[in-house]
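User: Hey, quick favor. My workstation is busy. Could you predict this chain's structure for me?
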Amino acid sequence: MMSQIKVLMVDDEKRFRDTTKKILNRQGFETILADSGEDALEKMDQAPDVVILDIKMPGIDGHETLIKIKKINPKLPVIMLTGHGAMPSAKEALEEGAFDYLSKPCDINLLAEKIKEACRLQDKTSVPQERSVVDIMIPISEYSTIQEDKTIKDAINRLKRSFLTQMATSRLMETGHRSILVVDKAKQVQGILTIRDLMEMVMPGYLSAPKPSLADSIEYSPMFWKGMFTMGVREIGNTCLSEVMSPSPAPIDGQANLMEAAYLMLEAKQRRLIVTVSGKASGIIREQELFFEMERLIN
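Assistant: No problem, here it is.
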């Protein structure tokens, strides 16, 4: 994997700067903040590897800042952030030497991929090659986890926090997790609980039971369904996770090829795999990570 990448984030909105720094730091980047183009130029002596630069700022705007940055370091990749409907401005930034641009609001995972891609292309000593699973996985420390002796209620509240704490502004989006890893006291993964698992748990067994031949075409009335969901949810709340969790996702070695990851997901009918490094669970790779890699390669 790459050594830590240093990112200079330039934006006049304080909340956006602070939010982005927290998220990027969690993803393994080192983040330097600048609140204006002038501030960014002063911090160029900290030798960032990539610059994230908002186009619209008071004082010297993103375009002028980009031009000045390129005079200081012509090879430094700069990713521009632009508002909807600002395509001409974005194209102008590319002509001025920007590496790429993203429209706001931008997905944090896509932004992280663009940062890594910019650094890979700048590394002239590396030979372009397919990335392995470990290069695009989510470190397990960043994924939602819960101990196996907790209840369904605890798991739902913990999973909800993965959505509520995903920090967002008008310019940034971070999606929550749709599953939670169940671990033992030694932090070893024992199973998983997904939103789909929860929906299956609240479903009365008789709805999926074989129907008599004469009832194959039965249609339930609105009254039949009334109160059923509420009752089902309340009934499972105190159930211990160890009793109902699904088995742990299939493992895949961190050095495995991405085609192998795609194959295993399809064969096992799973949307995510546990990534192992030296036999230890170290991360998660999901359909989303493979999708972003497809987007990177096709463009």
